């Protein structure tokens, strides 16, 4: 009952029961993650509170029970906690914005390694601060992580969803205020300034084929459709990104895009057909194709 006094043991078992009843495969683990996220205590502290039979404030009990009802409807835990971690930064998230995934850290790391290397400067025969585009910035996971980790980079976050935009702006303000936002269809916005040439174009674009409805209810019900689907084979946006990269990258510049594990060879082909070189695919920790990259040819020495 809301407001009733409970200790951690009682609350934990009530959360476990409700999540088991609503069909979670691992309700005990889900319950602990929820308690940890809502009470902002580590999993170890939750266990300790249980062993010590710690009493909880009625306000905390009510918050946990409310979150349990939402979680039972498969609302993502990150929405209930209000934040999602990515690359060591906490991004504010909620309805209307794509929740950053751990896999995207691989793309961010790859982009940062490229930008920290000096090879691109030599190929571009210039020493300007690098100019980086994040196409489909969502919460800002890529743009903000790059800008916060590499303060001399000039980073532009392109986002077309009016529902994602407030989250993006909030995260930029608190984590990397130097990031510039361009709101609207990125394919139009990025070509609007014909003088801009990019050192790197990075993207975690929509790449799910239109007919492939995700099995995971958290994704199907709560990730925005605009963040997921991209034409019948899922590659419409990646084709357009390849064309854009071939037109707007500086010599030696990098384009890198995330995709599903089955799209690696198709994406490499798209990059090569657009005139980009060195098209390659990187794998994630489970050895699945995760993102592909290519470069714009360098100027002859
Ligand atoms: C898969 S989400 C990735 C978000 C974020 N970069 C991340 O990795 O967490 C794709 C994002 O692209 C945005 N988007 C999709 N098509 C777009 C378009 N044509 N113009 C601008 N943004 C677009 C969606 O709104 C969504 O925020």
Automatic annotation (TrEMBL):
<dbReference type="GO" id="GO:0032259">
    <property type="term" value="P:methylation"/>
</dbReference>
<dbReference type="Pfam" id="PF17827">
    <property type="entry name" value="PrmC_N"/>
</dbReference>
<dbReference type="GO" id="GO:0102559">
    <property type="term" value="F:peptide chain release factor N(5)-glutamine methyltransferase activity"/>
</dbReference>
<dbReference type="Pfam" id="PF05175">
    <property type="entry name" value="MTS"/>
</dbReference>
<dbReference type="GO" id="GO:0003676">
    <property type="term" value="F:nucleic acid binding"/>
</dbReference>
<protein>
    <recommendedName>
        <fullName>peptide chain release factor N(5)-glutamine methyltransferase</fullName>
        <ecNumber>2.1.1.297</ecNumber>
    </recommendedName>
</protein>
<feature type="domain" description="Release factor glutamine methyltransferase N-terminal">
    <location>
        <begin position="10"/>
        <end position="82"/>
    </location>
</feature>
<dbReference type="InterPro" id="IPR004556">
    <property type="entry name" value="HemK-like"/>
</dbReference>
<keyword id="KW-0489">Methyltransferase</keyword>
<keyword id="KW-0808">Transferase</keyword>
<feature type="domain" description="Methyltransferase small">
    <location>
        <begin position="131"/>
        <end position="208"/>
    </location>
</feature>
<dbReference type="InterPro" id="IPR007848">
    <property type="entry name" value="Small_mtfrase_dom"/>
</dbReference>
<dbReference type="InterPro" id="IPR019874">
    <property type="entry name" value="RF_methyltr_PrmC"/>
</dbReference>
<dbReference type="InterPro" id="IPR050320">
    <property type="entry name" value="N5-glutamine_MTase"/>
</dbReference>
<dbReference type="InterPro" id="IPR040758">
    <property type="entry name" value="PrmC_N"/>
</dbReference>
<keyword id="KW-0949">S-adenosyl-L-methionine</keyword>
<dbReference type="InterPro" id="IPR002052">
    <property type="entry name" value="DNA_methylase_N6_adenine_CS"/>
</dbReference>
<dbReference type="InterPro" id="IPR029063">
    <property type="entry name" value="SAM-dependent_MTases_sf"/>
</dbReference>
């Amino acid at each position: 009952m809301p407001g009733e006094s409970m200790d951690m043991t009682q609350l934990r078992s009530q959360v476990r029961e409700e999540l088991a009843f609503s069909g979670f495969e691992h309700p005990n683990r889900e319950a602990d993650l929820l308690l940890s996220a809502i009470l902002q205590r580590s999993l170890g502290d939750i266990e300790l509170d249980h062993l010590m039979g710690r009493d909880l404030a009625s306000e905390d009990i009510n918050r946990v029970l409310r979150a349990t009802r939402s979680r039972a409807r498969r609302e993502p835990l990150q929405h209930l906690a209000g934040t999602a971690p990515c690359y060591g930064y906490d991004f504010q998230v909620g309805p209307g914005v794509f929740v950053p995934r751990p896999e995207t850290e691989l793309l961010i790391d790859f982009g940062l390694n490229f930008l920290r290397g000096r090879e691109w400067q030599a190929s571009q025969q210039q020493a300007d601060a690098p100019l980086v585009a994040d196409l489909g910035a969502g919460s800002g996971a890529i743009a903000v992580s790059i800008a916060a980790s590499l303060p001399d980079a000039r980073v532009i976050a392109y986002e077309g969803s009016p529902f994602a935009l407030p989250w993006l702006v909030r995260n930029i303000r608190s984590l990397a205020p130097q990031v510039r936002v361009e709101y609207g269809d990125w394919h139009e916005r990025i070509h609007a300034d014909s003088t801009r040439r990019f050192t790197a174009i990075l993207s975690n674009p929509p790449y799910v084929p239109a007919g492939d409805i995700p099995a995971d209810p958290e994704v199907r019900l709560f990730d925005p459709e605009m963040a997921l689907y991209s034409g019948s084979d899922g590659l419409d946006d990646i084709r357009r990104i390849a064309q854009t990269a071939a037109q707007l990258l500086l010599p030696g510049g990098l384009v890198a895009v995330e995709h599903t594990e089955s799209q690696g060879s198709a994406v490499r082909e798209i990059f090569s057909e657009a005139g980009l070189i060195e098209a390659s695919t990187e794998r994630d920790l489970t050895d699945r194709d995760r993102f592909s990259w290519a470069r714009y040819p360098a100027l002859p020495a």
